[in-house]
């Protein structure tokens, strides 16, 4: 169950309107946000310097399920 369904004040709204009302990012934004956090950690020396990263733009969309 999604956490947004548990909040009674936005239960009647559509998914997009719930996100706007609750000031939440979309699920498609989460990987980009993770990449930004990784870059910040690399630039501020929060990661182990022996670890190597490669960043590529993923243009292929994969659907899982029916």
Global mean pLDDT: 78
Q: How do the SSEs run, as a string of H and E?
A: HH
Number of strands: 0
Rg value: 17 Å
Q: Which structural class should the secondary elements be placed in?
A: mainly alpha
Low-confidence stretches: none
SSE topology:
Layout: H1 15-22, H2 30-43
Describe what you observe in this structure.
There is one protein chain. The chain has helices at 15-22, 30-43. With 66 residues, it is mainly α. The chain has a domain at 3-43. The two termini are 20 Å apart.
Which features characterize this protein?
single chain; 66 residues; mainly alpha; 2 helices; elongated
Brief rundown of the structure:
The chain is 33% helix and 0% strand. It is mainly alpha-helical.
